[in-house]
């Protein structure tokens, strides 16, 4: 049974990461890309492009975290947003919405997050210089949901504002 569960999890991952068919992005890719670009559009920022190469990187890193589902960032030279949700009921939009919901905690004038709050997932999403994004969603061994998005070039450069 464990091998069947592992096989199904890997198949799910392969089906949900990316694919371009006849020049069209997959539904999964669009579920990641559309909310990112809607947020960027509201900020009058250029849209991100989907990167299958970054989606593969995101999948590779997600698979490394599959055993523990830990919110530990990789050491790659990409911007990176991570999401963990208990159980399998989490959707891609939930992860992206959680990152975007950090917007009220970002103080543009001071270029800081509110005391005791996180805002760097949001600032990565709206980093003007970022051009490409690729993401993956997997189920960890625990049955929990894990989402990784990789951004290139990375944002959150110390001393710089996102836009």
**Secondary structure tally: strands:** 8
Indicate the low-confidence ranges by residue numbers: 1-21
Strand order of the largest sheet: 3-7-8-4
Mean pLDDT, all residues? 90
In angstroms, what separates the terminal alpha carbons? 50 Å
What is the radius of gyration? 16 Å
Largest sheet: 4 strands, mixed
Helix content: 25-40%
- Tally of helical segments: 5
General form: globular
What would you note in describing this structure?
The chain is built from five helices and eight strands; from the N terminus they run H-E-E-H-E-H-E-H-E-E-H-E-E. By secondary structure, the chain is α+β, with helices and mostly antiparallel strands. The protein is globular, with a radius of gyration of 16 Å. The chain starts with a helix and ends in an 11-residue tail after the last strand. Residues 1-21 have low confidence and may be disordered. Residues 1-22 form the signal peptide. Residues 27-159 form the SCP domain. It comes from Canna indica (Indian-shot). This is SCP domain-containing protein.
